[in-house]
Specification:
Elements lengths: L2 H32 L24 E4 L5 H11 L23 H6 L45 E3 L7 H5 L7 E3 L2 E3 L11 H11 L15 E5 L5 H6 L5 E6 L7 H8 L3 E3 L14 E7 L7 H13 E10 L8 H16 L3 E6 L2 E5 L5 H5 L32 H6 L9 H4 L12 H22 L10 E4 L6 H5 L6 E7 L6 H6 L3 E5 L12 E7 L1 H7 L4 H11 E11 L1 H8 L2 H4 L4 E7 L10 E6 L10
Parallel strand pairs: 5-6, 5-8, 6-7, 8-9, 12-13, 12-15, 13-14, 15-16
Antiparallel strand pairs: 1-17, 2-4, 3-4, 9-11, 10-11, 16-18, 17-18
Length: 616
Amino acid sequence: MNKVDNGEAMHMTKLSKYILFGSIVFLGLICLYYGSAFAPGLPRANDVGGTEDGTDPVFGGFVPKVNDIEDLLEDQENNPEVPKSIPMCDMRLSELIPCLDRNLIYQLKLKPNLTLMEHYERHCPPPERRYNCLVPPPVGYKIPIRWPASRDEVWKANIPHTHLAQEKSDQNWMVVNGEKINFPGGGTHFHKGADKYIAALAKMLKFSGDKLNNGGNIRTVLDVGCGVASFGAYLLPLDIIAMSLAPNDVHENQIQFALERGIPSTLGVLGTKRLPYPSRAFDLAHCSRCRIDWLQRDGILLLEVDRLLRPGGYFVYSSPEAYAQDPENRRIWNAMYDLLRRMCWRVVSRRDQTVIWAKPTTNSCYLKRDAGTHPPLCPSGDDSDAAWDVLMKACITPYSAKMHRERGSGLVPWPRRLTSAPPRLELLGVSPEEFQEDTRIWHFRVVEYWNQMKAVLKRNSFRNVMDMNSNLGGFAAALHDKDVWVMNVAPVNASAKLKIIYDRGLIGTVHDWCESFSTYPRTYDLLHAWAVFSEIEERGCSAEDLLIEMDRILRPDGFVIIRDKPSVTNYIRKFLTALRWDGWSVEVEPRIDALTSSDERVLITRKKWEEGVSTL
């Protein structure tokens, strides 16, 4: 053998050694990785036998994660439906609300009745006109200020609109202060602060300690024409939760500010259709200079409030008609007083600029009215809980025979209301025992959700939470010890369950997930979707459209929890990179419980965000 051959042999021997050494190191790293606490396919030591807080574990083990990148590349090659990317929308669409887009009304040449506020009601785009793009945040967007500081200040860059600060400068709605917008707590009717106004209302009602919660008997409130929701913000320390409601009108960003502040609120209008809430949902309704013509169409808007109020519920009305002595305001007051008298409401208190009415607790007054009195009682076949895309009706919803006998709703005070089985469960065929079991199971499920996320959660990461399929409200009830509020959404095929949400002292709405939700972009920190994709799949709706809609309403750095069939979670994982939801993710296999109807997986993922990058 010559020298050249010897040199080549030595070179090959060294190369073989390097390859062998590299292989050993590579295998060692793999073993170290899969033996660590962060390996995706193996349980950690503290996952065996129980959770850290001593409760029984709900999850039986982990599902090994496959290589997402290899899977995605393979799927993109073999399945053209899996996108390599989803484009960003034009920056002009940074505040897009697809079903409340007035440009769409003009484009489709619709002719809504402006007098009846139809142009503020939902008008959704047909599938061929939907935006198949991700809505971008505005330039300079920052992760929102965390609760509770957010009640009083938000980043101006996140909602770059200051016209309300100028228009309402004398009413203390909001004040621009450098990079921030501050909220002093004022309103059109309560310039000196909502807290003082709320205490004055409690004094008018002679509630103990001037506390409007009345020992837990006032829990859910509807605030119509809410402005930036300072009334609702200052109810929260009293353990009162308000559904703050306003349209996307000339004060177009008021609800956006409210949600940025972390205050429960939503877009909506008293127009031609029922509000998407069940009957007897609220203990109190509030209108402070809400600019609503309550006398129109035979009082149909007041009759909608009547539908929503519980037996004995209060209507707080602060407006010039309640106190001004000029002829026009006196005319309105007299007509309104006469209408409410015929509706059997009574004035409980009237002081300064505010009047408070109470709804009757029984049918007795209705039965004593003269024949032919208007408004009439609704016919016995009317479903007063039907609230999705249903026209309002100019009639009074009477009580059931049982509620008439018991002179009220039968609900216990808050906080016992949260976990006590409400009387209306029997209308759903659900027993108190099944209700309690549902509550227990969701407690265990939520404990495990948090155990999965705790390594990446920061303090006060969540404030605005949405449960996209709320069932009986167990998910929200399990979060009662956390400083969050939950928008409980009852899908249209399960809308009857929403009354149980309200009877527990929680809030929510009916919605069809084949359509866009009535909220601004970037308004929720956490979305929980239990069997939502399976449900819309059965109805022939698009999973991709729903994913894009979820991205629209999810804040940057926010989390999504999807609990569904393995085929659903496998499909969704293929879209994580295209959605920019690949900041962090984990998939686990939950233990079967009484609520499990089929094989399930839980996919938890986080929306990626880099500060200063407006395209995410």
